[in-house]
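User
Please review the sequence:
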Amino acid sequence: MNRTLHIATYNIHKGFSHFNRRMVMHELRDSLHAIHADVVFLQEVLGNHERHAERYTNWPEKPQYEFLADSVWTDFAYGKNAAYDGGHHGNAILSRFPIVKWENENISAHRFEHRGMLHCEIAIPGWDEPLHCVNVHLGLFGRGRKTQLLALRSRIEKLVPPHHPLIIAGDFNDWRIQAGEVLSGLLNLHEVFESAHGKPARSFPSLLPLFHLDRIYVRGFQVKTAQVLHGRPWSKISDHAALSATMIRL
Protein backbone atom coordinates (compact mmCIF):
# COMPACT_ATOMS: atom_id res chain seq x y z
CA MET A 1 0.00 0.00 0.00
CA ASN A 2 1.31 3.44 -0.95
CA ARG A 3 1.19 5.58 2.19
CA THR A 4 2.81 8.71 0.72
CA LEU A 5 0.56 11.59 -0.34
CA HIS A 6 1.65 14.84 -2.02
CA ILE A 7 -0.76 17.78 -1.80
CA ALA A 8 -0.83 21.50 -2.62
CA THR A 9 -3.06 24.46 -1.84
CA TYR A 10 -3.25 27.67 -3.86
CA ASN A 11 -5.39 30.79 -4.05
CA ILE A 12 -5.28 31.33 -7.83
CA HIS A 13 -6.74 34.88 -7.81
CA LYS A 14 -9.31 33.92 -10.46
CA GLY A 15 -6.57 33.25 -13.00
CA PHE A 16 -5.05 36.74 -12.98
CA SER A 17 -1.71 38.16 -11.87
CA HIS A 18 -1.26 40.93 -9.27
CA PHE A 19 -3.77 43.78 -9.65
CA ASN A 20 -5.42 41.80 -12.51
CA ARG A 21 -2.77 42.95 -14.96
CA ARG A 22 -2.56 39.70 -16.96
CA MET A 23 -4.62 36.61 -17.56
CA VAL A 24 -2.29 33.76 -16.52
CA MET A 25 -4.37 30.59 -16.81
CA HIS A 26 -1.97 28.82 -19.18
CA GLU A 27 1.08 29.63 -17.03
CA LEU A 28 -0.87 28.56 -13.97
CA ARG A 29 -1.75 25.19 -15.49
CA ASP A 30 1.87 24.50 -16.46
CA SER A 31 3.12 25.44 -13.00
CA LEU A 32 0.54 23.32 -11.19
CA HIS A 33 1.29 20.32 -13.39
CA ALA A 34 5.00 20.65 -12.53
CA ILE A 35 4.26 20.13 -8.81
CA HIS A 36 3.07 16.54 -9.44
CA ALA A 37 0.65 16.72 -6.52
CA ASP A 38 -1.89 13.98 -5.88
CA VAL A 39 -4.55 16.34 -4.52
CA VAL A 40 -4.78 20.11 -5.10
CA PHE A 41 -6.90 22.56 -3.10
CA LEU A 42 -7.74 25.73 -5.08
CA GLN A 43 -9.44 28.93 -3.94
CA GLU A 44 -10.88 31.85 -5.96
CA VAL A 45 -11.66 29.61 -8.92
CA LEU A 46 -13.94 30.91 -11.66
CA GLY A 47 -16.63 28.47 -12.69
CA ASN A 48 -17.81 30.88 -15.35
CA HIS A 49 -17.26 34.49 -16.43
CA GLU A 50 -18.89 35.64 -19.67
CA ARG A 51 -17.10 39.01 -19.88
CA HIS A 52 -13.63 37.48 -19.54
CA ALA A 53 -14.51 34.91 -22.19
CA GLU A 54 -15.42 37.74 -24.58
CA ARG A 55 -12.40 39.91 -23.74
CA TYR A 56 -9.55 37.38 -23.87
CA THR A 57 -8.99 35.43 -27.07
CA ASN A 58 -7.20 32.60 -25.26
CA TRP A 59 -9.69 32.36 -22.39
CA PRO A 60 -10.30 28.64 -21.66
CA GLU A 61 -13.56 27.26 -22.98
CA LYS A 62 -13.89 24.98 -19.96
CA PRO A 63 -14.41 26.09 -16.34
CA GLN A 64 -11.10 26.96 -14.70
CA TYR A 65 -11.04 23.88 -12.48
CA GLU A 66 -11.59 21.57 -15.43
CA PHE A 67 -9.02 23.40 -17.57
CA LEU A 68 -6.43 23.12 -14.81
CA ALA A 69 -7.20 19.46 -14.12
CA ASP A 70 -6.56 18.64 -17.78
CA SER A 71 -5.42 15.00 -18.05
CA VAL A 72 -3.43 15.09 -14.78
CA TRP A 73 -6.21 15.07 -12.19
CA THR A 74 -8.96 12.78 -13.40
CA ASP A 75 -11.48 13.80 -10.73
CA PHE A 76 -12.48 17.25 -9.53
CA ALA A 77 -15.17 18.96 -7.49
CA TYR A 78 -16.23 22.59 -7.47
CA GLY A 79 -18.15 24.48 -4.80
CA LYS A 80 -19.79 27.68 -6.01
CA ASN A 81 -19.65 30.36 -3.31
CA ALA A 82 -20.33 33.68 -5.05
CA ALA A 83 -22.65 34.23 -8.03
CA TYR A 84 -23.07 37.47 -9.99
CA ASP A 85 -24.20 38.64 -13.43
CA GLY A 86 -22.43 36.52 -16.01
CA GLY A 87 -20.36 34.39 -13.66
CA HIS A 88 -19.52 32.71 -10.36
CA HIS A 89 -16.49 31.56 -8.37
CA GLY A 90 -15.64 29.31 -5.44
CA ASN A 91 -13.30 26.54 -4.28
CA ALA A 92 -12.18 23.43 -6.16
CA ILE A 93 -10.40 20.18 -5.36
CA LEU A 94 -8.46 18.29 -8.06
CA SER A 95 -7.58 14.64 -7.43
CA ARG A 96 -5.67 11.81 -9.11
CA PHE A 97 -7.96 9.42 -7.23
CA PRO A 98 -11.76 8.97 -7.35
CA ILE A 99 -13.84 11.54 -5.49
CA VAL A 100 -16.66 9.35 -4.21
CA LYS A 101 -18.64 12.02 -2.37
CA TRP A 102 -18.61 15.79 -2.05
CA GLU A 103 -20.61 18.66 -0.62
CA ASN A 104 -20.18 22.43 -0.49
CA GLU A 105 -21.42 24.11 2.70
CA ASN A 106 -22.24 27.81 2.80
CA ILE A 107 -20.40 29.45 5.70
CA SER A 108 -20.90 33.10 4.73
CA ALA A 109 -20.78 35.28 7.84
CA HIS A 110 -22.68 38.17 6.23
CA ARG A 111 -24.24 39.11 2.90
CA PHE A 112 -21.21 41.08 1.66
CA GLU A 113 -18.79 38.14 1.73
CA HIS A 114 -19.73 34.80 0.18
CA ARG A 115 -17.70 31.92 1.60
CA GLY A 116 -17.94 28.14 1.58
CA MET A 117 -16.14 24.96 2.54
CA LEU A 118 -15.87 22.14 0.02
CA HIS A 119 -15.75 18.69 1.63
CA CYS A 120 -14.69 15.70 -0.49
CA GLU A 121 -14.23 12.02 0.31
CA ILE A 122 -11.52 10.46 -1.85
CA ALA A 123 -10.96 6.74 -2.36
CA ILE A 124 -7.22 6.00 -2.42
CA PRO A 125 -6.23 2.50 -3.61
CA GLY A 126 -5.15 0.29 -0.72
CA TRP A 127 -6.49 2.57 2.02
CA ASP A 128 -9.21 1.10 4.23
CA GLU A 129 -10.83 4.46 4.95
CA PRO A 130 -11.58 7.35 2.59
CA LEU A 131 -9.44 10.48 2.69
CA HIS A 132 -11.49 13.48 3.84
CA CYS A 133 -10.44 16.78 2.25
CA VAL A 134 -11.95 20.12 3.22
CA ASN A 135 -11.09 23.20 1.18
CA VAL A 136 -11.78 26.56 2.83
CA HIS A 137 -11.55 30.26 2.04
CA LEU A 138 -12.41 32.15 5.21
CA GLY A 139 -13.54 35.74 5.59
CA LEU A 140 -11.53 38.93 6.01
CA PHE A 141 -12.95 39.87 9.43
CA GLY A 142 -12.04 38.20 12.71
CA ARG A 143 -15.56 37.73 14.05
CA GLY A 144 -16.71 36.09 10.83
CA ARG A 145 -13.65 33.80 10.73
CA LYS A 146 -14.32 32.62 14.26
CA THR A 147 -17.89 31.69 13.32
CA GLN A 148 -16.63 29.92 10.19
CA LEU A 149 -13.99 27.97 12.12
CA LEU A 150 -16.61 26.80 14.60
CA ALA A 151 -18.79 25.67 11.68
CA LEU A 152 -15.79 23.82 10.26
CA ARG A 153 -15.10 22.11 13.58
CA SER A 154 -18.77 21.15 13.89
CA ARG A 155 -18.76 19.58 10.43
CA ILE A 156 -15.64 17.54 11.20
CA GLU A 157 -17.03 16.32 14.51
CA LYS A 158 -20.28 15.21 12.87
CA LEU A 159 -19.09 13.76 9.55
CA VAL A 160 -15.47 12.63 9.84
CA PRO A 161 -14.77 9.58 12.05
CA PRO A 162 -11.73 10.14 14.30
CA HIS A 163 -9.76 7.30 12.68
CA HIS A 164 -10.23 8.55 9.10
CA PRO A 165 -7.39 10.56 7.49
CA LEU A 166 -8.24 14.26 7.20
CA ILE A 167 -6.77 17.30 5.43
CA ILE A 168 -8.09 20.85 5.81
CA ALA A 169 -6.36 23.35 3.54
CA GLY A 170 -6.92 26.72 1.96
CA ASP A 171 -6.83 30.47 2.44
CA PHE A 172 -7.64 31.09 6.11
CA ASN A 173 -7.05 34.88 6.03
CA ASP A 174 -5.82 34.26 9.57
CA TRP A 175 -3.55 37.25 10.10
CA ARG A 176 -3.26 36.62 13.85
CA ILE A 177 -2.63 32.86 13.60
CA GLN A 178 -5.63 31.89 15.72
CA ALA A 179 -7.15 29.06 13.66
CA GLY A 180 -5.04 26.43 15.39
CA GLU A 181 -6.77 27.22 18.70
CA VAL A 182 -10.03 25.96 17.22
CA LEU A 183 -8.75 23.13 15.01
CA SER A 184 -6.26 21.48 17.35
CA GLY A 185 -7.16 19.95 20.69
CA LEU A 186 -10.40 18.01 20.32
CA LEU A 187 -9.93 17.56 16.55
CA ASN A 188 -6.33 16.37 16.95
CA LEU A 189 -5.18 18.32 13.87
CA HIS A 190 -1.72 19.75 13.34
CA GLU A 191 -0.45 22.27 10.79
CA VAL A 192 2.15 20.85 8.40
CA PHE A 193 4.53 23.84 8.39
CA GLU A 194 4.44 24.03 12.17
CA SER A 195 5.34 20.32 12.24
CA ALA A 196 8.13 20.66 9.66
CA HIS A 197 9.50 24.14 10.42
CA GLY A 198 8.08 25.23 13.77
CA LYS A 199 5.69 27.91 12.46
CA PRO A 200 3.05 28.47 9.75
CA ALA A 201 4.21 29.43 6.26
CA ARG A 202 4.42 33.01 5.04
CA SER A 203 2.36 33.00 1.85
CA PHE A 204 1.20 36.55 1.09
CA PRO A 205 2.05 38.55 -0.94
CA SER A 206 3.78 36.14 -3.28
CA LEU A 207 6.41 38.70 -4.35
CA LEU A 208 7.72 38.87 -0.78
CA PRO A 209 5.68 36.64 1.53
CA LEU A 210 5.14 38.26 4.93
CA PHE A 211 1.76 37.07 6.19
CA HIS A 212 0.67 33.58 7.28
CA LEU A 213 -2.64 33.40 5.38
CA ASP A 214 -2.64 29.93 3.84
CA ARG A 215 -2.54 26.71 5.87
CA ILE A 216 -2.62 22.92 5.68
CA TYR A 217 -3.98 21.08 8.73
CA VAL A 218 -3.82 17.27 8.83
CA ARG A 219 -4.80 14.30 10.96
CA GLY A 220 -3.50 10.78 10.58
CA PHE A 221 -0.29 11.77 8.75
CA GLN A 222 3.38 12.25 9.45
CA VAL A 223 4.72 15.32 7.65
CA LYS A 224 7.76 14.57 5.49
CA THR A 225 8.27 17.89 3.69
CA ALA A 226 6.52 21.27 3.54
CA GLN A 227 7.44 23.94 1.01
CA VAL A 228 6.36 27.47 0.08
CA LEU A 229 6.34 27.89 -3.70
CA HIS A 230 7.27 31.52 -4.31
CA GLY A 231 9.62 33.39 -6.59
CA ARG A 232 9.33 32.89 -10.33
CA PRO A 233 7.12 31.70 -11.92
CA TRP A 234 4.79 31.70 -8.88
CA SER A 235 5.21 35.38 -8.03
CA LYS A 236 4.00 36.26 -11.55
CA ILE A 237 0.84 34.15 -11.36
CA SER A 238 -1.09 35.05 -8.19
CA ASP A 239 -0.89 37.37 -5.21
CA HIS A 240 -0.62 34.28 -2.97
CA ALA A 241 2.22 31.77 -2.89
CA ALA A 242 1.33 28.11 -3.28
CA LEU A 243 1.97 25.65 -0.45
CA SER A 244 3.07 22.07 -1.02
CA ALA A 245 3.48 19.16 1.42
CA THR A 246 4.44 15.50 1.28
CA MET A 247 3.05 13.28 4.03
CA ILE A 248 3.05 9.66 5.10
CA ARG A 249 -0.17 7.98 6.23
CA LEU A 250 0.07 6.66 9.79
